[in-house]
Amino acid sequence: xxxxxxxxxxxxxxxxxxxxxxxxxxxxxxxxxxxxxxxxxxxxxxxxxxxxxxxxxxxxxxxxxxxxxxxxxxxxxxxxxxxxxxxxxxxxxxxxxxxxxxxxxxx
Length: 107
Fold this sequence. Notes:
Elements: H1 18-51, H2 69-93, H3 95-105
Helix pairs in contact: 1-2
């Protein structure tokens, strides 16, 4: 019978372990996918707002992909804010890489 002192204990630290790196990689993947999806939607709503008629014609039933101008504006604005939040998260998770790349660029 061996005591607990001679047995090796697993590393319970999340930051340095492979499980911690894997979890961070999953979060990075989710953030990148969300940025791509939101970027696509914001681009499409921006195109819709660009081609939308202005003035009283816009209020007379004009739609772009089934959405009228107020819906396009709301989607564009709110999803743009969501996209900005994901960009900040992306920068926070990749700050070390960003700094290393900037040092490489300016040396």
